[in-house]
Every structure is written in structure tokens, then in C-alpha cells.
């Protein structure tokens, strides 16, 4: 490599490795990361470090040692997804199986419950003599990609994962990735699909022609009440002047010509023009004379797809415990107000509480007599003022 490590590197296999003799600084690579041992003067420590600067960077990658999926098999699955979309307007999923001895691809449709933007399927399906190598699922009539739910499913499913979007269109969108240990590596469509490539195709575009509003100046004078020949009308100010001038002004015949403002309207909008332009996207190279509907699929595939019907909502009545409240607050709460008067008879009829009988008598305050008075003698009469 033309370079050497300035400090030794130890691999922590047992956790009891001995330090290199005569080395105060060295690295230890363990299960929980990379660590640096330092001894400088009175300081000795083992600290974590993000990396070892003397080492080269390593790029991650992943590939599958498999042939490309045949066009007939891809078209068969695509046709199945299109029929599911027509019937249920939902997504669907297919499992990919690979036979290592014959190097052939197979497709199985598991039991699944589908909805507009999701699918739940039984991932326990197996095919004898084959390994489960990936999935293909649809994204209805929107862009192909790998959503958050797709990435969670791929976290524990190593293999090839393909998404087909815009299923009803003649040129769908396709996303291909290889997932290993939760890491995803995006691939080109022609890396693992036969007869599918990125290219250009013609699309029809209907555009309305641009037109400009013609501005025509009004050549006729304004016949308003304030615009007459000099000397016509009365010289009264403001609103009264306008009314008087209108009443006593000479009569002007109405012209039969259309108003000049009509000339400023645009011409009738012509129909849109049809043009053809090139657009980049996925191109599927079917053999000459064949279309997608020529690639049939077993009828039992449809029977394994069920429309997900959410359960009916359950209405639960929550009963809260009744807390104690005073008669006044209870009566006010019953009336929906915290202010105003309340009726004792109505409240006692509802609660069975008698204010006159059930309330305890008021307590009598005991006061000490004055020091110079006899408690057995009646009190002296009050003086009248």
C-alpha cells in the first residue's frame, strides 16, 4: 500500500490483550468501537475515537450473483399489478424466489390484504428448492420509490427489492435496490431487469396558443354630464352641478355603433395545439407485435388478494366518578351556569336532602363576661341616644 501505521492496532478478541511492549500510544478495535490508548507524563487513558487517521477509507457496496429477471416474468407481474389496481385501486406485492442450481427466477403471490397506499402480506411463503430473494410491489398511480414502511420491511430482508409506480401508464416508473443488513444500495433498472431500460419516448402535449390583448384607444369623446361645450349648463358646484347640468343639457342622440370598449376584447380563443416532445423515463422493450396484456398470469393470483376493510368504530361511553360539590354549585352546574339563583325545592327533590332538617344547628359563640359584672345578674339596660 506504500504506507504504514504510525501506532500499533490491536483487535479485542477476548478483552484481555496485552499492550505492545514499549508502546505508549496504540489503537484497540473492539465490539463497541475504536479506542486510543495514550500515556503522556502522568496521564494514562483509553478513550474512544471516531476513526484511525492512518487507515484508508472503505466504500460500501452490494451486488447479487444472479442473472437478470426475464422480461416475460416482469411483464407478468406488472400485468397482475395493473389488474389489481383496476379492481381494487390498491397496491399489491409479489415474492421473488431464485433457484441457485438452475439459476432461474420464480414469482409467488402470497396471501395479502391491500389498501390504497399499503399492503400486508404473509412473508412465511416458501418454494421448495429455492431461496427467497426479494420482492416486487406496486405504487398504484404515483411515483415508484421506497417509502418508510418499505425500508422497515427491507431491514430484515436481504435481497432484491423492486417498486413499480404509475402502473396504468404505458411507461411506468421503476425503482430497484439491493438491501443487506438494513443498508440499501440503489441500482439502475437494467442491472437486474431484462428488457427494461432508461431512455426517451414520445409524449403528446396539448398547449393553448398565447394571445395578446389588443389595446384600442377611445377616439369618441366622453358624453358625461361634465363634458359639454363651453357655456352649456349652469355653474353650480359639486353634486348639484352634475344633476342640474344633466337636467338642462341639450339632448344628444344615442349612437347605434357598439361601444369602443368592445374593440379591446380579445379574439376568440383558438383550440389547443397538439405537439410531440421527447421525455426521459422507463422504456420496456416488448418484442415486436406484443403488448403487456399478452403476458397472462394465473387466475389464482387474484384470489389471494383481499381488500382491507377497517373495523367499525366502537363507541365507548366513559363514566367519570362524581365528585362532591356544594348544593349551590350542583344546582348551578345542573343549569349550565355558575351564576344566578337556584331553587331549593327542585334541588331537594332531586337529591333527597332537606335543608331544614339535615343541616346541623348553628354553633353559639361563647363570650367571656366583663371582669366587673356578675354573670348571674341581668345585663344593664342600653342607653337611648
| The first-level CATH class name of one domain | Alpha Beta
Stretches with pLDDT under 50, minimum 5 residues: 227-234, 336-340
Output the strand order for the largest sheet: 6-5-9-10-11-12
Order of helices and strands: EEEEHEEEEEHEEEHEHEHEHHH
Helix content: 10-25%
- CATH superfamily label of one domain: Cytidine Deaminase, domain 2
Number of alpha- plus pi-helical segments: 8
- CATH architecture group name of one domain: 3-Layer(aba) Sandwich
Number of strands: 15
Oligomer class = single chain
Shape: extended
* Overall residue-averaged pLDDT value: 78
| Alpha carbon gyration radius | 46 Å
Which class do the helix and strand fractions yield?
A: alpha+beta
Termini separation: 122 Å
Percentage of residues in strands: 25-35%
Structural description of this entry:
Among the domains are: 9-49, no CATH class; 71-206 and 280-307, 3-Layer(aba) Sandwich (Cytidine Deaminase, domain 2), CATH 3.40.140. 17% of the residues lie in helices and 25% in strands. It has helices at 71-88, 148-154, 189-192, 238-248, 300-303, 327-334, 344-351, 355-358, and strands at 9-11, 26-30, 33-40, 43-49, 93-99, 104-108, 112-115, 118-121, 131-138, 159-165, 173-180, 183-187, 196-207, 273-284, 305-307. A hairpin with a 4-residue loop joins strand 5 and strand 6 (104-108). Mean pLDDT is 78; it is low at 227-234 and 336-340.
Amino acid at each position: 500500500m506504500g504506507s504504514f501505521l504510525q501506532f500499533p492496532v490491536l483487535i479485542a478478541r477476548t478483552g484481555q490483550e496485552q499492550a505492545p511492549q514499549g508502546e505508549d500510544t496504540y489503537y484497540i478495535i473492539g465490539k463497541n468501537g475504536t479506542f486510543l490508548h495514550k500515556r503522556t507524563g502522568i496521564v494514562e487513558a483509553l478513550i474512544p475515537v471516531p476513526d484511525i487517521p492512518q487507515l484508508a477509507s472503505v466504500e460500501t457496496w452490494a451486488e447479487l450473483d444472479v442473472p437478470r429477471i426475464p422480461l416475460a416474468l416482469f411483464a407478468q407481474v406488472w400485468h397482475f399489478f395493473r389488474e389489481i389496481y383496476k379492481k381494487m385501486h390498491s397496491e399489491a406485492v409479489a415474492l421473488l424466489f431464485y433457484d441457485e442450481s438452475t439459476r432461474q427466477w420464480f414469482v409467488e403471490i402470497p396471501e395479502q390484504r391491500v389498501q390504497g397506499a399499503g399492503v400486508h402480506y404473509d412473508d412465511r411463503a416458501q418454494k421448495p428448492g429455492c431461496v427467497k430473494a426479494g420482492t416486487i410491489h406496486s405504487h398504484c398511480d404515483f411515483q415508484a420509490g421506497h417509502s418508510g414502511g418499505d425500508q422497515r420491511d427491507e431491514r430484515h430482508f436481504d435481497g432484491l427489492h423492486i417498486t413499480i409506480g404509475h402502473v396504468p401508464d404505458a411507461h411506468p416508473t421503476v425503482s430497484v435496490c439491493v438491501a443487506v443488513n438494513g443498508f440499501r444500495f440503489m441500482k439502475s433498472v437494467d442491472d437486474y431487469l431484462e428488457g427494461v431500460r432508461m431512455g426517451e419516448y414520445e409524449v403528446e402535449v396539448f398547449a393553448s396558443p398565447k394571445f395578446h390583448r389588443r389595446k384600442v384607444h377611445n377616439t369618441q369623446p366622453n358624453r358625461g354630464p361634465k363634458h359639454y361645450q363651453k357655456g352649456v349648463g349652469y355653474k353650480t358646484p359639486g353634486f348639484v352641478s352634475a344633476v342640474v347640468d344633466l337636467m338642462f343639457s341639450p339632448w344628444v342622440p344615442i349612437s347605434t355603433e357598439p361601444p369602443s370598449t368592445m374593440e379591446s376584447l380579445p379574439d376568440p380563443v383558438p383550440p389547443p395545439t397538439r405537439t410531440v416532445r421527447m421525455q426521459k423515463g422507463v422504456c420496456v422493450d416488448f418484442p415486436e407485435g406484443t403488448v403487456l396484456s399478452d403476458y397472462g398470469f394465473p387466475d389464482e393470483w387474484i384470489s389471494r388478494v383481499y381488500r382491507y376493510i377497517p373495523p367499525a368504530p366502537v363507541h365507548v361511553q366513559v363514566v367519570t366518578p362524581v365528585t362532591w360539590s356544594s348544593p349551590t354549585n350542583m344546582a348551578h352546574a345542573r343549569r349550565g351556569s355558575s351564576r344566578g339563583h337556584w331553587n331549593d325545592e327542585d334541588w331537594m327533590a332531586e337529591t333527597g336532602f332537606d335543608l331544614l332538617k339535615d343541616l346541623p344547628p348553628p354553633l353559639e359563640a361563647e363570650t367571656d363576661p366583663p371582669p366587673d359584672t356578675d354573670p348571674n345578674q341581668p345585663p344593664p339596660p342600653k342607653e337611648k341616644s
